[in-house]
Design a protein that fits this description.
Layout lengths: L9 H13 L2 E2 H11 L4 H14 L2 E4 L4 E4 L3 H18 L14 H13 L10 H42 L1 H9 L4 H30 L7 E2 L5 E3 L3 H18 L1 H8 L3 H7 L2
Antiparallel strand pairs: 1-3, 2-3, 4-5
Helix pairs in contact: 1-3, 2-3, 6-9, 6-10, 7-11, 8-9, 8-10
Length: 272
């Protein structure tokens, strides 16, 4: 593939932009820069660098996997301009959509006249369609958020009930501990540690399930080139673990406090 006909997609151009801006740099530098600016993980950037190498746009040398741009930014821009002109010349019906904001009537008439001089048919449309799409997208996001809130509330209620049942089943054991001199704080600490362990185990199981089934792909957003511009990573799994522990401990906090304050006599009576 020659320099004249190298076709780079938007995601690959982001890699090239780093080299055009900063010159010859290691692949790790490119990955760190795009992670900071775009949010891509290291593997995504390395895949894009490999694609650019295969297309002849980048040369990688040792040591340190140094990346060197083999084509200039101006060449890519000229190629894109030529392609756009060819499409316009080779298509009988070519539609170009232009969105104009904050323009007076005189300037709008001048723009229409200019388009007509170049042979274009001007069709004016208001922003109703766009506003409708934005409104529907907003409703979808609100719906997803509402489902998430409902699931969290359901999880809190379930953990609350399960903690209460578990404490009731262990009430005799707690009564014996209090008879032997355990304080309210000691009982609360025992119950909190138990819920903490349950939360940790549950969160770990959830994370392992996500990794095995590769459900994390659900959270990926793909661009037109077929590369993810956002995807789940280790930070999100750590956040999921932390969030699961917090829910497990605080959802059962009220039953734990109530159980820690019960008298030894009443505790032993419940399981008599």
């Amino acid at each position: 593939m020659t320099e004249e006909n190298i076709k780079l997609f938007d995601s690959e151009l982001k890699v090239m932009d780093v080299l055009w801006k900063d010159g010859d740099v290691p692949a790790k530098y490119v990955a760190d820069t795009l992670n900071r600016e775009v949010g891509w993980n290291k593997n995504t950037t390395y895949t894009l660098i490999k694609r650019c190498i295969n297309k002849g746009a980048i040369e990688r040398t040792e040591p340190g996997f140094m990346c060197h741009a083999l084509i200039a930014k101006e060449q890519v821009q000229d190629l894109e301009t030529d392609e756009l002109i060819d499409k316009i010349n080779n298509m009988d019906n070519y539609r170009m959509t232009v969105y104009v904001n904050s323009i007076d009537k005189t300037a709008m008439k001048d723009l229409e006249q200019l388009c007509k001089e170049y042979g274009y048919t001007v069709v004016k449309e208001n922003g109703g369609l766009i506003n409708s799409l934005v409104s529907k997208l907003t409703m979808i996001i609100i719906g997803i958020s509402a489902i998430g809130v409902i699931l969290v509330i359901a999880a809190v209620i379930i953990i609350y009930v399960m903690t209460k049942l578990d404490i009731y089943a262990r009430m005799y054991e707690l009564g014996v501990l209090k008879t032997m001199g355990a304080s309210n704080k000691d009982i609360l600490k025992i119950l909190a540690i138990h819920n903490l362990l349950v939360g940790c185990i549950s969160a770990v199981i959830a994370i392992v399930t996500l990794m095995i089934t590769d459900i994390s792909k659900v959270y990926r957003v793909w661009n037109l080139d077929g590369y993810p511009i956002y995807q789940s990573d280790a930070k999100q799994f750590i956040l999921l673990l932390f969030f699961g522990i917090i829910i497990a401990v605080f959802s059962g906090w009220i039953p734990m406090v109530m159980a820690s304050r019960i008298s030894p006599k009443n505790a032993l009576k419940l399981n008599a």
